[in-house]
Amino acid sequence: MGTTKTCLILIALVLVHLPIANNARSEVVHVTETGRGEYEKGVFTPGRAEFRYRFDVDEKTGKAKLTELIRLKNNEIIQLAVDYVIIASEDGTDLSGLLTSPTRRKQKILTLVGKPGSLATEIIVLGEDFFEYCKASSGRLYLATGSVRRAVSVEEDTSRQIQRR
Predict the structure, then answer these.
(1) Distances (CA, A) of 136 to 92, 113, 132, 154
(2) Which among 80, 94, 118, 122 counts the fewest CB atoms within 10 Å?
(3) Residue ranges of the chain whose pLDDT lies below 50
(4) 84, 66 in Cβ contact below 8 A?
């Protein structure tokens, strides 16, 4: 009887603390490209917007993850998961805010670095309403810009996506 009671108390304690452990929520960020291009041998070649992205961003752990990549022209889902490290977080109040353009100065801006493959490195700048992207690979720089839409949490965003399907 004593062992059963002890087990029930331990289970109750774990269940009570589970929601607290899950409070370190990640934020979901949806990004849609509005422009894209390549830079090679000193020449920039503009292109069309090509992708829509979904990132899970966890500022507490300093990590982010690309969880969805969709080709805009045909809604094709591309299987690619990339882990990123948040290397900078600016809120516009520090000295670097003076270098930020006036339209972006009051925004929180995160800088992410990731390796989508052994020969490529990506740097992503995520603002509250903008996105800048650069990938160095195969002797070229791939550049993109876009707009951002933020969701409340990973859990809420996932449940919205399930309801749509």
Answers:
(1) 27, 11, 14, 29
(2) 118
(3) 1, 3-24
(4) yes
pLDDT for the residue numbered 17: 35
* Residue showing tokens 């934020």: 27
Q: Which domain holds residue 68?
A: 24-164
How many domains does one find in the chain?
A: 1
Does some domain include residue 137? yes
Q: What integer pLDDT is reported at residue 24 of this predicted model?
A: 46
Around 98, how many Cα atoms within 13 Å sit in the side-chain half-sphere? 2
Q: What is the pLDDT of residue 157?
A: 58
Query: Considering the entire predicted model, what is its pTM?
Result: 0.73
Cα Rg of the chain, angstroms: 20
> In this predicted structure, what is the pLDDT of residue 37?
97
The two tokens of residue 76 are: 């094709």
Please report the pLDDT score of residue 94 as a whole number.
Answer: 61
CA–CA–CA angle 32, 29, 66 (5° rounding)? 85
Q: Look up the CATH number of the domain holding residue 128.
A: 2.40.160
Q: Is 16 within the bounds of a domain?
A: no
DSSP annotation string for 30-93: EEEEEEEEEEETTEEEEE---EEEEEEEETTTTEEEEEEEEETTTTEEE---EEEEEEEEE-S-
